[in-house]
Amino acid sequence: MTSAEAQQLTPVSNPAPPNGRYRWVICSLLFAVTAINYVDRQMIGVLKPVLASDLHWTEIDYANVVFWFQAAYAIGYIGFGRFVDVVGARVGYAVAFAIWTAAHIAHGAVNTITQFAMARFALGIGESGNFPVAIRAVTEWFPARERAFAIGVFNAGANVGAIVTPLLVPWLVALYGGNWRPAFVITGVVSLVWLVAWVILYRSPAKHPRVSPQELAWIEQDPADPTTPMRWRDIIRFRETWAYAAAKFCIDPVWWFYLFWLPGYLSERYHLDLKSFGPPLVVVYLMSDVGSVAGGWLSGRMMKAGWSVNAARKTTMLICACAILPIFAVQSVDNLWTAVFIIGLATAGHQAFSANLYTLPSDLFPRSAVGSVIGIGGAIGGVGGMLFSLYIGRVLQELGSYAPIFLVAAAAYFVALLIVQMLSPRLARVAIASA
């Protein structure tokens, strides 16, 4: 790779701020669907005590159910990554959303652990499309200097979904006399409103009647990319692909742990029930929201101040890893709200780290390869999540302690950043011609 081929991603011009902001309407749609995605995903964690009682689950049974969701997520992630590179964001999102909503509603009809695992598997296939399609849409609608912030904004929808779930779901369960099944059906049916809005409102920027010429020039200010989708055999040759994928392998399992086990941890450690662990979870995910947006903003601000993409992304991720570090000692904290602050700081750090990590494929690869790279990374992250879920189930069943799990959660981000630095020390844009 020559130095000319390995130039950093920088704008070819400095156009005036756009007359029009329709790209933020698209970002708001991505925010909303990510929130829905996380409501559907996190309901199992919120309902864990009820489901364990009703379906007679052990910790290992629960870990196995989560395992099958993550297995499907890994399979679907790599498939949807390629699918969206071929069909585009509009069709890709419609297909993914339809699959996961149907699977989510189907949870209301299950009666056994096996049936629940099957419904979770189908949910994982559909939900795996959310981030590959969303990041492909951001790549289409935002210039490089705005992408990390836009990803941080829509990724904050995950935390909104995680906030809404512990407030909404216990209320729905109580409304139906302790029956958890209607909660799945009602939330699934209501969310179909988003699908209608997406089909009506989304088009590519160049074809959208609501996009002004000035805004289109702002969106298209970066160097032109090849438009032909790259072959996987070429994509996997790049170290940059594996820098992203290996980092996802390290950090994704930690987020799965927070999502699926945090309600149960708070319930066991601080003696909270289905109604009372809602406020602590709200605080945790509000902090996560702040982290998601702040992480994207910080690296973008550094780039505007003249920092390189390499320095801005990695410095931000290092700050995030340091903020997460205190999580290793949280189990020794007896005060609930002190523990909530430490956990919230860790989840905020994760979301800020993740907002920058998600931006790397668009920093490093042409638009036609972004979905595939994200798909590969998501699949590898899913495999990490599967293995970590089995580890968590075994540790809790045999040791009854979360301490080893929190230790892994504290170290994972430093390991991820080290891998990125080793495999892509300059975050240089890949030289497609060499493939």
- Tell me the domain tally: 1
Main β-sheet: number of strands, strand sense, barrel status? Answer: none
Given this structure, which CATH class is correct? Mainly Alpha
Q: What is the 3D form?
A: globular
Derived structural class: mainly alpha
- Gross CATH architecture: Up-down Bundle
| Mean pLDDT across residues | 87
Share of helix, binned: over 70%
Number of E strands:
0
Name the beta content range.
Answer: under 5%
Number of helices: 17
Cα(first) to Cα(last) distance is: 10 Å
Written as H for each helix and E for each strand, in order along the chain, the element string is HHHHHHHHHHHHHHHHH
Query: What is the CATH homology-level superfamily?
Result: MFS general substrate transporter like domains
Poorly predicted parts: 1-13
- What is the rounded Rg? 21 Å
CATH topology: Growth Hormone, Chain: A
